[in-house]
Structures
1.
Amino acid sequence: MTLEELNQKVLTEEFSYQEFELFYKNLMNQFLEFQKTLEEAALVARNDKDKFQRLLRIVSGKNSSDLIERLKKLGYRYRKSSIESIQVSFANMGYRLLEQTRAGKRDDVYYGLLRIFIAAKENFPLDLVEAFKPYYSDELFKTFIFSFLSGLLGQEEQTLNEEN
């Protein structure tokens, strides 16, 4: 559905919440795809490379707040997971990963997380892959990983949308 079609439905008062929710999800997916395309363009651009990098920082900044929330929910899902090896590994390594993140040791954090997922025979989550991309600042990287780990190691949340 296009924005024009959605506007037309509003004008005729023939719309539903689900249509808006679906439109929003599609829009966010398009925005993420745009960021991936822009990332590739910034890597291969011969002209205006600085402009591409600047635009990539703006776009990735917009997606950062959404990624922070998704990482926290992902951590929470792994805490509640039935995969015992992941729970045990994070219980044993969680605070070490926190300290490595605080120290800005991206490679060590990546290695630690990757080991946990490989040992559990689980795919490495794409949202975690995104958090390690080099165009994110060190401070933003820390925020991403702290969000994920807070979901894993934090207290129970009392929200209605924690599984979304």
2.
Amino acid sequence: MLYSEMKRKISSAKTMKRRNKFLLWGFFSDVVLLDQASKYFAEVYLKHRDFPLNSWFSLTLSHNTGCAWSLFQGRTMILGFLGIAVLLLIYYLRNILGIYERPIAFGLLLGGILGNAIDRLCRGLVVDFFNVNLSIYNWPIFNVADAALCMAVFILVFFRPMGRKSKNLNDKELDE
């Protein structure tokens, strides 16, 4: 490999990492800001009424002192500090986890964790307000942070980073 070609590849890799960091921190901050702003809106405007948008979706203010599906009720502070600990652990293990290879997923994940941790530590509860009521199932009321967490998990489970090959296959096996 020529020196100029090697230099171009290194430059391209640095540009890609810079772009991915921008995406990660952009999604992270957008989720936190949108989550906190929407919760403020819900507290102010939905305090004494529901706001139906159609037959199956409405905005309904709800407070949760637990976590998903109202599990661990009353353990708000423990869950808040646990969220911060998980956030710091993911950041500490960022190179091992490859968070810059999947910036959108990890931006959504970290933003969702921090959005709900802020609520738990500052308000003593999590504000939820999206209410999906299908005729066959009434989904638990959720918020922007919860939606971001679900999208992140979906992306992490079903999509692998671009350019990665399975460790079980080599190039020869891929051609056959």
3.
Amino acid sequence: MIDLSKVSWVFAHGSLMFDSGFEPAAIMPGRVWGWERRFGQPSVRNWGTSEAPAPTSSLSRGSHCDGLLLGIPHGDGGSVLRRIVAREANEPVSVTVSTELGDAEAFTWLMSDAWASLSVEELACHGVVNVAAGGGPRGDAWQYVSGVREALSAHGLDDGLVTWYADTLGPRVAASGSAPTGAIEDQPPSAGHPG
């Protein structure tokens, strides 16, 4: 059993769930209350460019957000956090994350919510442009949302917004002829959309 107070944690809600840049000492599902995932951050550095930004995860005030609690290896905390701060281009905030083992304090990144009010259809339009333009150094909008969905699913989590966005973006990317080979066709069918 993990003593949650003896580990430094990062709460991952976007690409850190599947592309953390470090080997976590522990990984477990967690929930942050009072925040919701939105695809409100237009990524122009990692998943897109200024000409073709990719919609990426941000947190906006709301009900809750499910994600992954990543344990930072002992003795590596400062180095890991500096790398994530450089990657995310802003400072972390501390949040309380509920897990099956109890609550843990974790660092997370709120990011911009510049696109938080866009509809899923508008996000998908940005996503298609991003994929057609080749994305950014870490990948494109389709790879991003697929990675988020797969990371959540691998830990028994589901986010209706992630599913809805992926199910809206996938066919549009495929229709545009911009999809990476096999990426869209290999996705599991949707479990439904939020109401």
